Amino acid sequence: MIQLSLLIALFLIMIGVLLSSYRLIKGPTQADRILALDTLSINAIALLVVFGMWLGSTINFEAALLIAVLGFITTVALSKYLMRGDVVE
User: Fold this and answer.
1) Sign, CA torsion 29/31/33/36
2) CA gyration radius, the chain
3) CB atoms inside a 10 Å sphere around CB 85
4) Most exposed: 3, 7, 23, 77, by fewest CB within 10 Å?
């Protein structure tokens, strides 16, 4: 039963990845694209965690933590660049 639930969760997360990718490509403004990139990183984290639970592997959780840190740093850097035009002051 849990395997079926994990497969359904993987399918729904993949739909979220596809929708985020569409918004990343077609976003009308730069702010929409940055938000879509942040959502895409969150979906990637969820995808790795659910896939790790499905396989019974713990290495995926470490990769998810790494993507979480990089996603946060990327979002902050791109937002700062969009607002000020420079990342480092």
Assistant:
1) negative
2) 15
3) 7
4) 3
